[in-house]
Amino acid sequence: MKDYIARVIRRHLSLKPMVFQLAGCLLLCVAIGSVTQAGTAITQTTGAGDLGTQVLPPSGNLYGITGGKPVGNNLYHSFGQFSVGTGDVAQFQTSTLLPNSTLSNILARVTGPNPSSIFGTIDSISYYPSANLFLMNPNGILFGPGAQIFVGGIAHFTTADYLRLSDGVRFEALPGAQDALLSTASVAAFGFLGSNPAAIMVQGSQLTMGKRTGLSLVGGNRGFTYTNPDTGAAASVPDGVTMTGGMLSAPSGQINLVSVASKGEISAGDFMPTSGMKMGNIALSQGAILDVSGDGGGTVRIRGGQFIMDQAAAVRANTTGASNGAPTAISVNVTEKIVLLGGSSILSVAEGEGNGGLVSLTAPSIEMHGNSNITTSSTGLGDAGYIELQGNQVNLTTVSFVKARTESKGHGGNITIRGLTGKGSRANDVRLSDNSQLVSETIGQLLGEGDAGNILVETARLNLSGGSLFNTASRGSTGAAGNITVNATDSLTISGHGTQLTSASMEFSFGDAGHISISAPSVVIENNGFISTSTGLMKNAGTITVNTNNLQLLSGGHITSSSLLENPGYPPSGAAGNVTIQGLASPAQSVLIDGPGSGIFTDTQGTGAGGNILVKANSVTLQNSGTLSASSTGLVEHPGNAGNIEINATNGLTMQNSAITTQAGQGAGGGNIKVTTSRAATVRLQNSKISASVADGPGGGGNISIDPQFVILQHSQILAQAAQGQGGAITIIASLFLPDAISIVNADSGSGVNGTVTIQSPNAPASGKIQPLGKSPLQATSLLNQRCASLAGGEFSSFTVTGRDSLPTEPGSWLASPLALGPAGFSAGSVTEGGEQARVIDLAQETTALSLRQIAPAGFLTQAFAVDESTGCQS
């Protein structure tokens, strides 16, 4: 025994120091301090399938394995059974006990009926320092808590039925297999012949591979019963490839976990299954860790039907040192679903000069719950890795998050979420709820930090709720926040207090906020949810562009862009961004703003300009305190002007108890407001206000331009006033301008030059106001004069009297108010009638049918009654 130990020491002293530390020292300690376990069972195959494998009698706790069948750089071994007890060592040896550094692969199979229980150590690095190891047992493989693997290349453990070589030859693990055609080719695939292959399990093992090597577990979905080699007790292994506790580590190398549930092949290159192959379960729990971090981080590949991480399980692929990490750091590709639970994490960090790698998750369903996270970041000079999620259902809930960040000079990674079938998929949903987050950010201490990455979501439906955060940000950084792009083929919904889709430059950052671009047939923002861009210092807020057919801002839902001025001691400040609402390929069909707090807002609190608001839609409706506002509210010495508001409402603008304002204070100028429609549309204000005014200081009021077919004002205001500066200019061009007696159009200045009011309307009430009609109703018979119509050359349309609420009381007039038809004692409130003698009208006491009378168009009388034959026509 002493001679053997001396040979081990001499051999490892001749190898690299790393190899000596991993194998020589361990074997020395194990050989001196351990007792052979009776549970170790390693036997060679006898009879058919015998490849000349020899298992030597144990020397202490060491089981030497020699012989086998060498073919070129491949060495083939065949075992009847292969289990290693705790503390024991199964060592692949050369016949000369001298290292063979030319051998590429050791291919070993187990042909007996028992699974392999690895509770001790497997060593091939001592005599084959460069060889990969393939151990194949179709009956199952289990790694216990004390398992150790020392392999110079990559170690592959599989429950496959055969290994297919690149030349087509199959090395089979079937009883009585014929091996006459074994070749020198490398392994190309793991082959499964049955529909229910056996599982693989790791129970608390700490398996650490050499640098830039790796470990593969390619198993099935069928659990099995095994005999514990230490105690002799029977125990069971669950379905799939599972890991409870422990760590699999391959610094700068690769870890591959694959679970199958049908016949087929798994590629030995990218570990993808053949087309149509059914895949099995993979589960990590109880703090289990997969780690390929190192100088130039490695790759973790997961292939299965379901992949579940629970109880703080983790997958890590960090990049240290000067080398870039592998292009793909973590790749999870399963056929059913990915689930992260209980604080589990997937992490790729660029810690040194090298760039981090991509984190890619692909599955029909991706779920994250319970404070789980996927994170890429840069803490060194390298760039953070990208994050790509591809799934028809992507659901983040209960404080889970996906985050790409940079804390240094490196750039943050992009985040992309899309459906499996690519852009615009038949059935995709992305949901964030319960304070979950999708974040790309740059944070630091103004030391030259890089830009944050962009966020792109391509789906059918994106739904944010429950205080969720969808955000790009620059926090105390010199880098800019990333852009956000959402392309949804169906809808975007943002609902709930604090639920937000935002881009911000904040916390004394010197980077611009990102731009936000939304494209969806339907966009609904409700219950105090919001979209926003903002800046807090010198840089600018981003723009917001919403391309949609139907936009609804409800119950406090709003869109904002602001320049906040976090510290008044740092002027000048950046500008607020512009907000644009338009259709997917033309004007939007409708824009509805409904409820207190609902609206579109731009604001500047500093010296930067306020953002502009542009709305293009067929119809625009504001009601119940809905608001469009562009303001300048800063207290600085030279505040920025309020932004402009432009509304192009093809089929008209309707406002009820709402406001459109460009308000400014402290000397800033009020922005302009422009409303245009088609020539047949109406701008109608009921108890509403359009204002481009300055509340304080010498700034001038903004200008207001309204150009529809009809303008109707009911208890409403159009204002371009100024406190000290010049009032603005109000221009109304309409075929018909109808204000009631209470409405106001005003461009005065408190102490400066008044503005101008220009109304171009060929048809308007003589008094300039709408007056109540007389109490005597018109007689319908006076209008039914067919003879007069005939004499007038047929220049009249027919008129039919029908039931109430169907036609107005006379041709061309307004319909009677339903309030006039209420029953006796009906109380409908009151309105205040303006004029010099103001009075309150109690609607319940009035018997007059309240209506607005439409004045006949110009030339009507001349056209209708200039016919001589009709002169003096009587009924």
Description:
- This protein has 4 helices and 72 strands.
- It is mainly beta and 875 residues long.
- It has a 39-stranded mixed beta sheet that branches.
- The termini are far apart.
Protein structure class: mainly beta
| Total helical segments | 4
Shape: elongated
Largest sheet: 39 strands, mixed
Strand content: 35-45%
Residue share in helix: under 10%
Backbone CA Rg: 40 Å
How many distinct beta strands?
A: 72
The CA-CA distance between the termini, in Å, is 135 Å
Q: Name the average pLDDT.
A: 84
Query: Which residue ranges are poorly predicted, with pLDDT under 50 across at least 5 consecutive positions?
Result: 1-38, 800-806, 812-872
Supply the key terms.
875 residues; mainly beta; disordered N terminus; 4 helices; 5% helix; 39-stranded mixed sheet
Write the layout of secondary structure elements.
Blueprint (H helix, E strand, L loop, with lengths): L1 H12 L3 H17 L7 E4 L8 E3 L6 E6 L1 E3 L2 E10 L5 E4 L12 E6 L5 E3 L2 E3 L8 E5 L4 E3 L4 E3 L3 E5 L3 E4 L4 E3 L14 E6 L7 E4 L2 E3 L5 E6 L4 E4 L6 E4 L3 E4 L2 E3 L4 E6 L4 E4 L13 E5 L3 E3 L2 E2 L3 E11 L4 E3 L2 E2 L7 E13 L4 E6 L7 E5 L2 E4 L4 E6 L8 E4 L2 E4 L4 E6 L8 E4 L10 E4 L4 E7 L11 E11 L3 E7 L8 E12 L4 E7 L9 E4 L2 E5 L3 E6 L8 E4 L2 E5 L3 E6 L15 E4 L5 E7 L4 E6 L8 E11 L3 E6 L12 E5 L3 E4 L2 E3 L11 E4 L5 E5 L2 E3 L12 E4 L2 E5 L2 E3 L9 E5 L2 E4 L4 E3 L9 E5 L25 H6 L38 E4 L5 E4 L17 H6 L10
Parallel strand pairs: 3-6, 5-7, 6-9, 7-10, 8-11, 9-12, 10-13, 11-17, 13-19, 17-22, 18-23, 19-24, 22-26, 23-27, 24-29, 26-29, 27-30, 28-31, 29-32, 30-33, 32-34, 32-35, 33-36, 34-37, 35-38, 36-39, 37-40, 38-41, 39-42, 40-43, 41-43, 42-44, 43-45, 44-46, 45-47, 45-48, 46-49, 47-50, 48-51, 49-52, ...
Antiparallel strand pairs: 1-5, 2-3, 4-5, 14-15, 14-16, 16-25, 20-21, 71-72
Helix pairs in contact: 1-2
